[in-house]
Amino acid sequence: MSAEKKQVPSVWTRPQRRVREQPALSRDQIVTEALALLDDAGIEALSMRKLGTRLNAGATSLYTHVANKDELIELVVDLVYGEIEVPAGGSGDGGG
Fold first, then answer.
1. Considering the entire predicted model, what is its pTM?
2. Mind listing where the DNA-binding region sits, in residue ranges (predicted)?
């Protein structure tokens, strides 16, 4: 029996692995997509895993931008409140 020599590829000659190109996430993207998820399916459907799937990211990568689900909900509420247009001036009826 002869021992066959198996050639081990050198680290210097081995082709580089393809790096998966993923766009960087931002807090704004996460909050905007969370709002879309809430609009589509309601608050019961909001999970970091589902949100990560919609953003093509892992759920754990979301925690780089938001501390937890409660903070995410606060940020979504802030986004919604920021979109409310308050009429300029008063209605003139005194409000009460």
1. 0.68
2. 47-66
User: Minimal CA–CA distance to 27: which of 10, 1, 51, 53?
Assistant: 51
Q: How many domains, in total, are found in the chain?
A: 1
DSSP characters over the chain: -PPPPPPPPPTTTSPPPPPPP-PPP-HHHHHHHHHHHHHHH-GGG--HHHHHHHTTS-HHHHTTT-SSHHHHHHHHHHHHHHHPPPPSS--SSTT-
Q: Mean pLDDT, consecutive 10-residue segments, the chain of 96 residues? A: 65 64 86 98 97 96 96 98 89 57
Q: Which domain covers residue 55, as residue numbers?
A: 27-82
Residue 53's CATH number: 1.10.10.60
